[in-house]
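For this section, I looked closely at the sequence of one protein beside the C-alpha cells encoding its backbone, which the following lines show:
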Amino acid sequence: MKTKSIIFLLFLFVPASFMFAQIKRLEAVKQESFITYKITHPLHEIESTSKMALCLVDVDMKTKEIKKVLVQVAVTSFNSGNSNRDSHAMEVVEALLYPDTRFISSSVTQKGDSLQVSGKLTFHGVTKDVYMTAVDQWSGNKLIVTGGFNISLTAFKVKRPSLFMIPVSDKLVFTFKQVFNVPS
C-alpha cells in the first residue's frame, strides 16, 4: 500500500510536460551531414570539411524542439583537399595528443526555427563555453539543422600557423549542416 501511495505522489508532482514528452534521440546521417572550418590568411583562405562527426540530438517529437546536442569529431577526419596542408594542421592541433573535439550543450533555446545553443566545447585539450546559432527545418521525415560559430585559436592554446612569417587569423569559423532521419 505504501508503494502505491509513493507512486501516486510522484505522479502528482512530476510535471505533465515531462511525463508526456516524447523525447527521441536522433543520430545525424553522416553521408548527408558535414562540419567545415575556415581559417584566413592575408594571402588565402582555407576550408576543411569532415563528414565523420557523431552528432546526437534529443528532440521532443510532440513540440518538434531540440532539447540537447552532443557532437564529437576526430580532428583527423577534416579534409581540405591538400594532404600536406592537412598533415600540417594535424601537427598544429596536436592530433595525436588531442584526437577528438567534443561539444555538449548546456542549453538550447528555440523560437520558431531559430536555435540558440550554449555549451562546452573541448578542443586541443581545452574546454570553453561556446555559443552558436542555428536553424532547424523539418521536411517530411528529415530534420535539417544548419548553423555556425567562431572560436579563438589562442583561447584554445593552439599556436597560429604562419605563412611567410605572417600568422593566420586567430578566428576559426565553423559552419555545419546535420541531417537526421525522423521516425514516423
Observations:
- DSSP finds three helices and twelve strands in the chain.
- The chain has a mean pLDDT of 88.
- The helical segments are 2-13, 16-20, 83-92.
- The first strand starts at residue 23 and ends at 27.
